[in-house]
Amino acid sequence: MVCGKREFELLNKINFIRTCGTEEEKQAAQILAEEARAIGTEPVIESFDVDRWDIKKVSLVACGKEWEVTGYGMSGSTPEEGITAPFAYIQDATDVDLLNTKGKIVMVNGRVGDELYKKLVKAGVAAFITFEGNIVDKREETDLDTRNLRDWAIKEGKIPGVNMRTMDAHELVKAKPETVTLTLIQDEGLATSQNVIAEIKGSDPEAGTIVFGAHYDSVPFSHGVYDNGAGSVIIMELMRYFKENQPKRSMKFCWYGSEERGLLGSKAYVATHKEELKDVVLMVNVDVAGPVLGKDIALCTSDDSLRVAVDYLSKEVGFAITSKQDIYSSDSIPFADNGVPGINFCRFGAPGGANIHNRHDIIDSLDWPNLEETTKFILTFSERLANSVVFPVPREIPQNIVEKVDKYLKKPAKK
Q1: Residue-range definition of the domain harbouring residue 262
Q2: In which band, very low, low, confident or very high, does the pLDDT at 415 lie, cut at 50, 70 and 90?
Q3: Residue 35: pLDDT over 80
Q4: Fewest beta carbons less than 10 Å away: which of 104, 258, 274, 328?
Protein backbone atom coordinates (compact mmCIF):
# COMPACT_ATOMS: atom_id res chain seq x y z
CA MET A 1 0.00 0.00 0.00
CA VAL A 2 0.95 3.67 0.14
CA CYS A 3 4.10 4.50 2.13
CA GLY A 4 4.75 8.15 2.95
CA LYS A 5 8.25 7.43 4.23
CA ARG A 6 9.16 5.88 0.88
CA GLU A 7 7.73 8.93 -0.90
CA PHE A 8 9.84 11.18 1.30
CA GLU A 9 12.97 9.20 0.45
CA LEU A 10 12.38 9.77 -3.26
CA LEU A 11 11.58 13.43 -2.59
CA ASN A 12 14.97 13.81 -0.94
CA LYS A 13 16.65 12.32 -4.02
CA ILE A 14 15.33 15.17 -6.20
CA ASN A 15 15.79 17.81 -3.49
CA PHE A 16 17.90 20.17 -5.62
CA ILE A 17 17.35 23.07 -8.01
CA ARG A 18 16.29 21.66 -11.41
CA THR A 19 15.28 24.40 -13.80
CA CYS A 20 14.08 24.12 -17.38
CA GLY A 21 16.63 22.88 -19.90
CA THR A 22 19.50 22.38 -17.43
CA GLU A 23 21.67 19.38 -16.61
CA GLU A 24 20.04 19.32 -13.17
CA GLU A 25 16.59 18.93 -14.73
CA LYS A 26 17.95 16.09 -16.84
CA GLN A 27 19.45 14.50 -13.71
CA ALA A 28 16.08 14.62 -11.96
CA ALA A 29 14.43 12.99 -15.00
CA GLN A 30 16.97 10.16 -14.83
CA ILE A 31 16.29 9.65 -11.11
CA LEU A 32 12.55 9.38 -11.76
CA ALA A 33 13.11 7.04 -14.70
CA GLU A 34 15.33 4.78 -12.58
CA GLU A 35 12.67 4.64 -9.86
CA ALA A 36 9.99 3.79 -12.44
CA ARG A 37 12.23 1.06 -13.84
CA ALA A 38 12.81 -0.39 -10.37
CA ILE A 39 9.03 -0.65 -9.96
CA GLY A 40 8.92 -2.86 -13.05
CA THR A 41 7.81 -0.48 -15.80
CA GLU A 42 9.71 0.54 -18.91
CA PRO A 43 9.95 4.33 -18.77
CA VAL A 44 10.66 6.40 -21.87
CA ILE A 45 12.30 9.82 -21.83
CA GLU A 46 10.94 12.11 -24.54
CA SER A 47 12.98 15.23 -25.28
CA PHE A 48 11.70 18.54 -26.62
CA ASP A 49 13.21 21.94 -27.39
CA VAL A 50 12.88 24.95 -25.09
CA ASP A 51 14.15 28.50 -25.36
CA ARG A 52 17.57 29.09 -23.87
CA TRP A 53 19.44 32.29 -23.15
CA ASP A 54 22.74 33.27 -21.65
CA ILE A 55 22.94 36.76 -20.17
CA LYS A 56 26.39 38.09 -21.03
CA LYS A 57 25.93 41.56 -19.56
CA VAL A 58 23.13 43.36 -17.75
CA SER A 59 23.16 46.70 -15.96
CA LEU A 60 21.02 49.67 -15.07
CA VAL A 61 22.78 52.96 -14.35
CA ALA A 62 20.96 56.02 -13.05
CA CYS A 63 21.54 58.83 -10.54
CA GLY A 64 25.27 58.17 -10.56
CA LYS A 65 25.04 54.53 -9.44
CA GLU A 66 24.53 51.04 -10.82
CA TRP A 67 21.45 49.20 -9.59
CA GLU A 68 21.13 45.46 -9.04
CA VAL A 69 19.05 43.97 -11.88
CA THR A 70 18.54 40.73 -13.76
CA GLY A 71 17.83 40.60 -17.49
CA TYR A 72 14.71 39.22 -19.13
CA GLY A 73 15.65 36.16 -21.15
CA MET A 74 14.50 36.13 -24.78
CA SER A 75 13.86 39.89 -24.71
CA GLY A 76 16.64 40.65 -27.16
CA SER A 77 19.76 42.76 -26.66
CA THR A 78 20.64 46.41 -26.56
CA PRO A 79 23.67 47.84 -28.36
CA GLU A 80 26.93 47.03 -26.57
CA GLU A 81 27.02 50.49 -25.02
CA GLY A 82 23.43 50.13 -23.83
CA ILE A 83 20.45 52.45 -24.27
CA THR A 84 20.43 55.86 -22.62
CA ALA A 85 16.93 57.31 -22.68
CA PRO A 86 14.44 59.36 -20.65
CA PHE A 87 12.93 57.49 -17.69
CA ALA A 88 9.20 57.19 -16.99
CA TYR A 89 7.31 55.38 -14.24
CA ILE A 90 4.08 54.43 -15.97
CA GLN A 91 2.33 52.73 -13.02
CA ASP A 92 -0.74 51.00 -14.46
CA ALA A 93 0.04 51.68 -18.14
CA THR A 94 -3.20 53.53 -18.77
CA ASP A 95 -3.54 55.65 -21.89
CA VAL A 96 -2.57 58.66 -19.79
CA ASP A 97 0.47 56.82 -18.34
CA LEU A 98 1.65 55.95 -21.83
CA LEU A 99 1.44 59.46 -23.30
CA ASN A 100 4.76 60.44 -24.89
CA THR A 101 6.59 57.25 -23.84
CA LYS A 102 7.98 56.45 -27.28
CA GLY A 103 11.72 55.88 -27.00
CA LYS A 104 11.68 55.99 -23.21
CA ILE A 105 12.80 53.39 -20.66
CA VAL A 106 9.70 52.74 -18.58
CA MET A 107 9.11 51.15 -15.21
CA VAL A 108 5.85 49.25 -14.61
CA ASN A 109 4.29 47.87 -11.45
CA GLY A 110 4.98 44.19 -10.88
CA ARG A 111 4.96 41.77 -13.80
CA VAL A 112 4.35 42.31 -17.50
CA GLY A 113 1.15 40.55 -18.56
CA ASP A 114 0.02 40.09 -22.14
CA GLU A 115 -2.19 43.18 -22.38
CA LEU A 116 0.43 45.38 -20.76
CA TYR A 117 3.18 44.08 -23.03
CA LYS A 118 1.07 44.78 -26.12
CA LYS A 119 0.64 48.35 -24.87
CA LEU A 120 4.39 48.76 -24.43
CA VAL A 121 5.06 47.53 -27.95
CA LYS A 122 2.38 49.79 -29.41
CA ALA A 123 3.71 52.78 -27.47
CA GLY A 124 7.20 52.18 -28.87
CA VAL A 125 9.07 52.17 -25.56
CA ALA A 126 12.81 51.55 -25.76
CA ALA A 127 13.03 49.17 -22.79
CA PHE A 128 11.13 48.22 -19.64
CA ILE A 129 11.84 47.68 -15.95
CA THR A 130 9.80 45.50 -13.57
CA PHE A 131 10.26 44.98 -9.85
CA GLU A 132 9.46 42.35 -7.23
CA GLY A 133 9.40 41.81 -3.50
CA ASN A 134 8.70 44.23 -0.68
CA ILE A 135 10.27 47.51 0.38
CA VAL A 136 11.08 45.93 3.77
CA ASP A 137 12.85 42.87 2.33
CA LYS A 138 16.34 42.05 3.52
CA ARG A 139 18.60 41.83 0.49
CA GLU A 140 20.69 39.01 1.94
CA GLU A 141 17.59 36.88 2.66
CA THR A 142 15.90 37.14 -0.73
CA ASP A 143 16.79 36.39 -4.35
CA LEU A 144 16.17 38.52 -7.41
CA ASP A 145 14.08 36.53 -9.87
CA THR A 146 15.35 35.67 -13.34
CA ARG A 147 12.48 36.20 -15.77
CA ASN A 148 11.91 35.70 -19.47
CA LEU A 149 9.50 36.68 -22.19
CA ARG A 150 7.01 33.96 -23.07
CA ASP A 151 5.93 33.05 -26.61
CA TRP A 152 2.89 35.31 -26.48
CA ALA A 153 5.15 38.32 -25.82
CA ILE A 154 7.86 37.41 -28.31
CA LYS A 155 5.38 37.27 -31.18
CA GLU A 156 4.45 40.90 -30.44
CA GLY A 157 8.10 41.98 -30.78
CA LYS A 158 11.06 41.99 -28.42
CA ILE A 159 11.71 44.84 -26.00
CA PRO A 160 14.80 44.55 -23.76
CA GLY A 161 13.78 44.30 -20.12
CA VAL A 162 15.29 44.07 -16.65
CA ASN A 163 13.93 43.17 -13.23
CA MET A 164 14.90 44.81 -9.92
CA ARG A 165 13.97 44.74 -6.23
CA THR A 166 10.99 46.74 -4.98
CA MET A 167 13.21 48.51 -2.43
CA ASP A 168 15.45 49.70 -5.26
CA ALA A 169 12.53 50.65 -7.51
CA HIS A 170 11.16 52.75 -4.64
CA GLU A 171 14.48 54.58 -4.30
CA LEU A 172 14.89 55.06 -8.05
CA VAL A 173 11.42 56.54 -8.57
CA LYS A 174 11.91 58.88 -5.59
CA ALA A 175 15.16 60.12 -7.16
CA LYS A 176 13.28 61.16 -10.34
CA PRO A 177 16.12 60.58 -12.84
CA GLU A 178 15.82 62.35 -16.17
CA THR A 179 17.59 59.52 -17.99
CA VAL A 180 18.76 55.99 -17.26
CA THR A 181 21.15 53.70 -19.13
CA LEU A 182 20.03 50.09 -19.58
CA THR A 183 22.33 47.45 -21.01
CA LEU A 184 21.30 43.88 -21.82
CA ILE A 185 23.46 41.59 -23.93
CA GLN A 186 22.37 37.96 -24.27
CA ASP A 187 22.90 34.91 -26.42
CA GLU A 188 19.57 33.29 -27.33
CA GLY A 189 18.99 29.80 -28.67
CA LEU A 190 17.51 26.39 -27.81
CA ALA A 191 18.07 23.83 -25.06
CA THR A 192 16.58 20.41 -24.36
CA SER A 193 14.03 19.48 -21.72
CA GLN A 194 12.38 16.10 -21.21
CA ASN A 195 9.27 14.24 -20.10
CA VAL A 196 9.44 10.87 -18.36
CA ILE A 197 6.63 8.50 -19.39
CA ALA A 198 5.74 5.05 -18.07
CA GLU A 199 2.72 2.88 -18.86
CA ILE A 200 0.65 0.20 -17.16
CA LYS A 201 -1.60 -1.82 -19.45
CA GLY A 202 -5.13 -2.35 -18.21
CA SER A 203 -6.99 -5.66 -18.23
CA ASP A 204 -9.49 -4.16 -20.72
CA PRO A 205 -7.59 -2.35 -23.51
CA GLU A 206 -10.85 -1.01 -24.94
CA ALA A 207 -11.89 0.75 -21.72
CA GLY A 208 -9.73 3.83 -22.27
CA THR A 209 -6.66 5.33 -20.60
CA ILE A 210 -6.16 7.52 -17.54
CA VAL A 211 -3.15 9.84 -17.63
CA PHE A 212 -1.48 10.77 -14.34
CA GLY A 213 0.77 13.81 -14.41
CA ALA A 214 3.06 15.96 -12.28
CA HIS A 215 5.83 18.37 -13.16
CA TYR A 216 9.26 17.78 -11.68
CA ASP A 217 11.12 20.97 -12.64
CA SER A 218 11.67 23.90 -10.29
CA VAL A 219 12.34 27.63 -10.63
CA PRO A 220 15.72 29.30 -10.06
CA PHE A 221 16.84 29.42 -6.40
CA SER A 222 14.17 26.88 -5.39
CA HIS A 223 14.56 23.20 -4.50
CA GLY A 224 10.92 22.83 -5.46
CA VAL A 225 10.03 20.05 -3.02
CA TYR A 226 6.56 21.47 -2.37
CA ASP A 227 6.22 22.70 -5.96
CA ASN A 228 6.37 20.08 -7.29
CA GLY A 229 8.65 17.32 -6.12
CA ALA A 230 5.77 16.29 -3.89
CA GLY A 231 3.38 15.73 -6.79
CA SER A 232 6.08 13.80 -8.63
CA VAL A 233 6.58 11.31 -5.80
CA ILE A 234 2.83 10.93 -5.28
CA ILE A 235 2.20 9.70 -8.82
CA MET A 236 5.23 7.41 -8.49
CA GLU A 237 3.60 5.83 -5.44
CA LEU A 238 0.33 5.46 -7.34
CA MET A 239 2.15 3.73 -10.18
CA ARG A 240 3.81 1.36 -7.71
CA TYR A 241 0.36 0.33 -6.42
CA PHE A 242 -1.20 -0.16 -9.85
CA LYS A 243 1.80 -2.15 -11.08
CA GLU A 244 0.99 -4.67 -8.35
CA ASN A 245 -2.80 -4.34 -8.76
CA GLN A 246 -3.62 -4.26 -12.47
CA PRO A 247 -6.45 -1.82 -13.20
CA LYS A 248 -9.18 -2.35 -15.73
CA ARG A 249 -8.20 0.78 -17.64
CA SER A 250 -4.72 1.42 -18.93
CA MET A 251 -2.67 4.14 -17.27
CA LYS A 252 0.10 6.46 -18.33
CA PHE A 253 2.28 8.19 -15.77
CA CYS A 254 3.96 11.37 -16.95
CA TRP A 255 6.55 13.52 -15.23
CA TYR A 256 6.67 16.80 -17.14
CA GLY A 257 9.69 19.03 -17.55
CA SER A 258 9.57 22.82 -17.94
CA GLU A 259 6.13 23.37 -16.43
CA GLU A 260 7.41 26.48 -14.70
CA ARG A 261 8.22 28.03 -18.07
CA GLY A 262 4.61 27.83 -19.28
CA LEU A 263 3.50 24.18 -19.15
CA LEU A 264 6.01 23.34 -21.88
CA GLY A 265 6.32 19.65 -20.97
CA SER A 266 2.60 18.88 -21.02
CA LYS A 267 2.16 20.98 -24.16
CA ALA A 268 4.90 18.91 -25.82
CA TYR A 269 3.24 15.71 -24.61
CA VAL A 270 -0.21 16.44 -26.05
CA ALA A 271 1.38 17.59 -29.32
CA THR A 272 3.41 14.38 -29.62
CA HIS A 273 0.59 12.06 -28.51
CA LYS A 274 -2.26 13.79 -30.33
CA GLU A 275 -3.67 10.56 -31.80
CA GLU A 276 -3.62 8.78 -28.45
CA LEU A 277 -5.66 11.52 -26.73
CA LYS A 278 -8.90 10.21 -28.22
CA ASP A 279 -8.55 7.18 -25.91
CA VAL A 280 -7.77 9.23 -22.79
CA VAL A 281 -10.82 9.41 -20.54
CA LEU A 282 -9.32 11.50 -17.72
CA MET A 283 -6.16 13.42 -16.76
CA VAL A 284 -5.25 13.31 -13.05
CA ASN A 285 -2.72 16.00 -12.18
CA VAL A 286 -0.96 16.47 -8.82
CA ASP A 287 0.74 19.81 -8.20
CA VAL A 288 1.90 20.89 -4.71
CA ALA A 289 1.45 18.62 -1.71
CA GLY A 290 2.78 17.67 1.69
CA PRO A 291 2.84 20.86 3.84
CA VAL A 292 2.25 20.36 7.55
CA LEU A 293 0.03 23.45 7.62
CA GLY A 294 -2.39 23.40 4.71
CA LYS A 295 -5.57 22.09 3.14
CA ASP A 296 -6.41 19.68 0.32
CA ILE A 297 -8.16 20.94 -2.81
CA ALA A 298 -9.48 19.25 -5.96
CA LEU A 299 -10.01 21.47 -9.01
CA CYS A 300 -12.02 19.83 -11.78
CA THR A 301 -11.65 20.83 -15.43
CA SER A 302 -14.60 18.65 -16.29
CA ASP A 303 -18.33 18.20 -16.07
CA ASP A 304 -19.50 19.29 -12.62
CA SER A 305 -20.48 15.73 -11.74
CA LEU A 306 -16.81 15.00 -11.01
CA ARG A 307 -16.71 17.75 -8.38
CA VAL A 308 -19.81 16.27 -6.77
CA ALA A 309 -18.25 12.79 -6.83
CA VAL A 310 -15.10 14.01 -5.07
CA ASP A 311 -17.19 15.76 -2.44
CA TYR A 312 -19.21 12.57 -1.90
CA LEU A 313 -16.07 10.42 -1.64
CA SER A 314 -14.55 12.88 0.84
CA LYS A 315 -17.50 12.38 3.17
CA GLU A 316 -17.65 8.64 2.59
CA VAL A 317 -14.02 7.98 3.56
CA GLY A 318 -13.58 10.86 6.01
CA PHE A 319 -10.87 12.83 4.19
CA ALA A 320 -11.17 16.62 4.31
CA ILE A 321 -10.89 18.06 0.81
CA THR A 322 -12.64 20.92 -0.96
CA SER A 323 -13.70 20.30 -4.56
CA LYS A 324 -14.38 22.97 -7.15
CA GLN A 325 -15.08 23.13 -10.87
CA ASP A 326 -12.31 25.40 -12.10
CA ILE A 327 -9.03 25.52 -14.01
CA TYR A 328 -5.65 25.40 -12.29
CA SER A 329 -2.39 26.80 -13.63
CA SER A 330 -0.76 23.43 -14.24
CA ASP A 331 -0.44 20.52 -16.63
CA SER A 332 -4.13 19.66 -16.94
CA ILE A 333 -4.61 22.79 -19.06
CA PRO A 334 -3.20 21.40 -22.36
CA PHE A 335 -5.37 18.30 -21.90
CA ALA A 336 -8.51 20.36 -21.33
CA ASP A 337 -7.58 22.38 -24.43
CA ASN A 338 -7.65 19.08 -26.34
CA GLY A 339 -11.01 17.95 -24.97
CA VAL A 340 -9.75 15.70 -22.16
CA PRO A 341 -11.46 16.24 -18.78
CA GLY A 342 -9.18 16.46 -15.78
CA ILE A 343 -8.78 16.91 -12.07
CA ASN A 344 -6.00 18.66 -10.15
CA PHE A 345 -5.20 17.43 -6.66
CA CYS A 346 -3.31 19.92 -4.49
CA ARG A 347 -2.51 20.45 -0.83
CA PHE A 348 -2.13 24.19 -0.56
CA GLY A 349 0.01 25.52 2.25
CA ALA A 350 -1.76 27.65 4.85
CA PRO A 351 -0.77 31.37 4.78
CA GLY A 352 2.87 31.46 5.82
CA GLY A 353 2.98 27.65 6.05
CA ALA A 354 4.69 26.86 2.74
CA ASN A 355 6.51 28.76 0.03
CA ILE A 356 6.74 28.41 -3.73
CA HIS A 357 9.01 29.97 -6.34
CA ASN A 358 11.71 31.05 -3.91
CA ARG A 359 14.60 29.77 -1.79
CA HIS A 360 12.19 28.91 1.05
CA ASP A 361 10.51 26.01 -0.79
CA ILE A 362 12.36 23.48 1.33
CA ILE A 363 11.58 20.03 2.66
CA ASP A 364 11.32 21.24 6.28
CA SER A 365 7.85 22.68 5.57
CA LEU A 366 6.55 19.22 4.56
CA ASP A 367 6.17 15.89 6.33
CA TRP A 368 5.57 12.34 5.16
CA PRO A 369 2.25 11.74 7.03
CA ASN A 370 0.54 14.57 5.11
CA LEU A 371 2.06 13.35 1.86
CA GLU A 372 0.79 9.85 2.61
CA GLU A 373 -2.74 10.94 3.51
CA THR A 374 -3.15 12.94 0.30
CA THR A 375 -1.79 10.01 -1.71
CA LYS A 376 -4.22 7.58 -0.08
CA PHE A 377 -7.20 9.69 -1.06
CA ILE A 378 -6.00 10.13 -4.65
CA LEU A 379 -5.46 6.36 -4.81
CA THR A 380 -8.98 5.64 -3.55
CA PHE A 381 -10.41 8.06 -6.11
CA SER A 382 -8.26 6.69 -8.93
CA GLU A 383 -8.89 3.03 -8.21
CA ARG A 384 -12.66 3.49 -8.29
CA LEU A 385 -12.57 5.32 -11.60
CA ALA A 386 -9.99 2.98 -13.10
CA ASN A 387 -12.12 -0.06 -12.35
CA SER A 388 -15.62 1.37 -12.84
CA VAL A 389 -17.93 -0.75 -15.00
CA VAL A 390 -18.93 2.31 -17.02
CA PHE A 391 -16.64 5.34 -16.87
CA PRO A 392 -18.68 7.96 -15.00
CA VAL A 393 -17.00 11.18 -16.19
CA PRO A 394 -18.42 12.59 -19.46
CA ARG A 395 -15.68 13.11 -22.02
CA GLU A 396 -16.50 16.74 -22.63
CA ILE A 397 -15.32 20.13 -21.43
CA PRO A 398 -18.09 22.49 -20.23
CA GLN A 399 -18.27 25.87 -21.95
CA ASN A 400 -17.35 27.79 -18.79
CA ILE A 401 -14.12 25.78 -18.53
CA VAL A 402 -13.42 26.15 -22.25
CA GLU A 403 -13.62 29.92 -21.88
CA LYS A 404 -11.27 29.93 -18.89
CA VAL A 405 -8.77 27.69 -20.66
CA ASP A 406 -8.85 29.90 -23.77
CA LYS A 407 -8.25 32.98 -21.65
CA TYR A 408 -5.42 31.26 -19.76
CA LEU A 409 -3.75 30.25 -23.02
CA LYS A 410 -4.26 33.80 -24.34
CA LYS A 411 -6.24 32.67 -27.36
CA PRO A 412 -7.91 35.36 -29.46
CA ALA A 413 -11.45 36.06 -28.32
CA LYS A 414 -14.02 34.18 -30.41
CA LYS A 415 -16.54 36.26 -32.31
Answers
A1: 4-50+191-408
A2: low
A3: yes
A4: 274
CA angle, 40 then 44 then 49, to 5°: 155
60 in Cβ contact with 168 (< 8 Å):
no
130 located within any domain: yes
% of the chain with per-residue pLDDT over 90: 98
Give the whole-angstrom CA distance, residue 54 versus residue 184: 11
The total number of structural domains that make up the chain: 2
Which stretches of 218-317 are DSSP H helices? 230-244, 264-272, 304-317
Q: How many CB atoms lie within 10 A of CB 116?
A: 19
**CATH code at position 328:** 3.40.630.10
**Same-domain pairing of 152 and 205:** no
For residue 415, tell me if it sits in a domain.
no
Euclidean distance between CA atoms 320 and 305, whole angstroms: 19
208 with 183, same domain? no
Q: Is residue 94 part of a domain?
A: yes
Helices marked H in 23-147: 23-39, 114-123
- Comparing CA positions, the residue from 412, 389, 408 lying closest to residue 344 is 408
Residue 61 DSSP SS3: strand
In a domain, 58, yes or no: no
| pLDDT, tens only, 104-147 | 999 999 889 999 999 999 999 999 999 999 999 999 999 999 99
Closest CA to 17 of 141, 143, 130, 139: 143
> Which residues 6+ apart lie within 8 Å of 286 measured at CB?
212, 213, 214, 228, 230, 231, 234, 235, 344, 345, 346, 378
CA distance 332 to 340: 9
Report the alpha-carbon distance of residue 374 to residue 296 in Å, rounded: 7
Contact 186, 56 (CB under 8 A): yes
